[in-house]
Design brief:
- It is a single chain.
- By secondary structure, the chain is mainly α.
- The protein contains six helices and two strands.
- A hairpin with a 7-residue loop joins strand 1 and strand 2 (88-92).
- The longest helix has 52 residues, at 94-145.
- Keywords: DNA-binding.
- Residues 3-135 form the HTH marR-type domain.
Length: 151
């Protein structure tokens, strides 16, 4: 098989993967409201909206919209910062933690089903390959950030 066929096959399978429930469930934890709740829940104490924006790698305007929605649902609370009255502190509420736990449990069930379907050997091999992909991408990004050559 030549390099073009390998590349095209990889692209085709990755495209197919994006439509899977497991990817949709995981995507919630890396972007949008669930990702914001997850970051706030994992933080020790409150976060400023700007910190959340940096953590999520989204604009401050997008972060403000996410927080407005989460606040409306009772999943976060926002208070004026005691350290700097010009800033806000954001925290996950108990309702937010309960909602996050429900979502997290559903995603865990999906992943457990894949572990059962693929078995230990295939899961370990897939994990090794995914780690290799992430490591490669991190190296490329580090070179790009230092002004080095791109792919």
């Amino acid at each position: 098989m030549d390099k073009t066929q390998l590349r095209d096959g990889l692209m085709r399978e990755l495209r197919r993967m994006t439509k899977l429930d497991i990817i949709a469930g995981l995507r919630e934890f890396v972007e949008g409201e669930i990702a914001a709740l997850y970051c706030l829940n994992e933080a020790e104490g409150a976060l400023a909206p700007s910190q959340l924006s940096e953590e999520l790698k989204v604009s401050r305007a997008r972060t403000a919209n996410i927080l407005r929605s989460l606040r409306g649902k009772g999943f976060v609370e926002m208070d004026i910062s005691a350290g700097d009255r010009r800033k806000m502190d954001v925290r996950c509420t108990e309702a937010g933690r309960a909602f996050l736990e429900e979502k997290y449990t559903a995603v865990l069930r999906l992943f457990e089903a894949y572990v059962d379907a693929l078995g230990e050997e295939d899961i370990l091999q897939l994990t090794r390959i995914l780690d290799k992909i992430v490591s490669y991408e991190e190296q490329v990004q580090a070179k790009t950030n230092r002004g080095g050559a791109e792919r």
